[in-house]
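job 3f2a | input accepted
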Amino acid sequence: MTSRIGASVQSSYLKCTFLGDTNGIRVSGVSTPRVGVVRKVVECKESRIGKNPITVPSNVTLTLDGQDLKVKGPLGELALTYPREIMLDKDESGALKVKKTMETRRANQMHGLFRTLTDNMVVGVSKGFEKKLQLIGTGYRATVEGKDIVLNLGFSHPVRMAVPAGLQVKVEENTRITVSGYDKSEVGQFAASIRKWRPPEPYKGKGVKYADEIVRRKEGKAGKKK
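job 3f2a | predicted structure (226 res):
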């Protein structure tokens, strides 16, 4: 009985204190300081690649129509469409500058990419690109027959591949292949297609590899230890 009375008195004391009733008890209020929030506008830095100007040679002609760019040179002609986040500007010296039209995450991602693509187009139509491959293996050889390249890579039949338009393929010493053209992506894609038929294996290094490729070799199975 005594514990019930004590509990009721304690609850009424807490209730009165919470509600602010004095009942002979002074309740002091505690002031809460206000927290101020300051917003800062963070400006995104320009891409180190994207802000570099592109030098245009005298033998290259540029045609810009809205977001479409056409580049024409002695080796060929290429075209590229820019997204709305990117714009192309030409200064007084004739150099090209790729700029952002808005400050967004996608614009930052596209800035350096489209500057590189534009530079590849200018270099491609004026100087061109090339990719060299090498055949390593007994009996591995390559020949050019008309517009096809024929590869002997140890299969039961030779591999014949048609050379895409705009590319040139040259074979030296039956084992060295050079793929050249004005479109860098096409050159790289066709060279990768040739290498795909017989990638270099890590034990003896046999296969088709890029001329500057380093193949990591593995140690074969060791003989029986005595």
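job 3f2a | Helices lie at 2-19, 105-126, 184-196.
job 3f2a | closed
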